[in-house]
Amino acid sequence: MALASPDEETIAAIATAVAPGQGGIAIVRLSGRAAKKVVRTVVSTPGEPAWESHSVLYGHVMDTQGTQRIDEVLVLIMNSPRSFTGEDVVEIHCHGGLIAVQQVLERVLVHPEVRRALPGEFTQRAVLNGRIDITQAEAIGDLIAARSRKAAQIAMTGVDGGVQRRINSLRLILLDQLSEIEARVDFEDELPALEEKKLLNELQQVRQALRELIDDANRGEFLRQGLRVAIIGRPNVGKSSLLNRLSRRERAIVTELPGTTRDLLESEVVLEGVPITLLDTAGIHSTNDVVEKLGIERSHQALIAADVVVLLFDLKSGWTQDDECLLLSIPKEIPKLLVGNKADLLVPSKVNLSQIEPSKNQPEVIFSAQTGEGEKKLIKSLLQKCGASDVQGLVVALNARQRDLASLADAALARTQEVAKQKLPWDFWTIDLRQAIHNLGEITGEEITEAVLDRIFSRFCIGK
Question: pTM of this prediction?
């Protein structure tokens, strides 16, 4: 479906993060036919500089009366089509922080020919003007939101067109097959017979490639969304010590007194490229302390919402009835990892804990939060529990929208194989082939509607 061209309105927004006392430079971006005209009325430049494309001008943003300076700025000019959006783009580089950049934007928005940009509208215009395709646009959003180096690396592959190339290559194969089949429908008597077995083999190869992309997308989701890991256990088994060990900092208070943690503590870490939110819960036990009760209730809520649960118990004390009750309280559908802590108090320091193989009814990982022994095995086991252990080999990872469309294309191709088994005419093959081609076209934007496009970019930040 052909998409409508962007409207003629000129848009403006802050294109950089805004926070008090943060960032020496901020950028106000304008895009549209009146971008240069608007900025020329806002910024006073000494002399008579030429407002040429890809030039930088020095000046001051002035108030509406032209008597008071609001900020000292640089102006970057990019004429159509050599800009991100494909339109005339002008950026005002002003001082960062909060007040200065807001004042510059407010001054720009006073002009009657400019309006505030919608979320993702700059990138949407780049797509509509053919500067990038929809997969590249989505990858830009992923790059901005990346929580680990690996996530940023995969997003950059998408920005470079990696997803587009993979999907387009599969779609072209299906288009070739469809044209061959349709030719037989119209001119069967005049053309040589199609080799059905060869055709089915090619369809199977496309399906295999799609399933690999779907599997990679499922693993890539861990990099985008991260994991929530709840650490639970009886009081004083070392939950806070484990959190501090993995966080590489003293995030939680650790003492010999049971019940030190009375609230839910969170710590963001990256383990083997996977962003993880560690949740240090209050020790779950019976208590009459009102504050402790609130903390324990939050611990139960974290337990239910976690992607994986680490059940920590004290090796020196051994497995207790309370530990068994905690194990039974973990929802069956949530992966769990049993970790025996305080191995340093149980095993002589000269013994290599990595050589100890826990037997049945013993912990899956033997660990010491004090010395760090067993940490590598703990991390490996934790990631394996939720299928996130093999993300380093990922090069391309579809997002959720793209993965769902790839799954629909795979299902459509599966139906063509069923049609072949039933020995139905070629006309029936074309129905599902067209559907698969349409689904793949939706991934790259070849078959996308404006409504879907609006929904995608509504999730972007303003200014991008």
Answer: 0.78
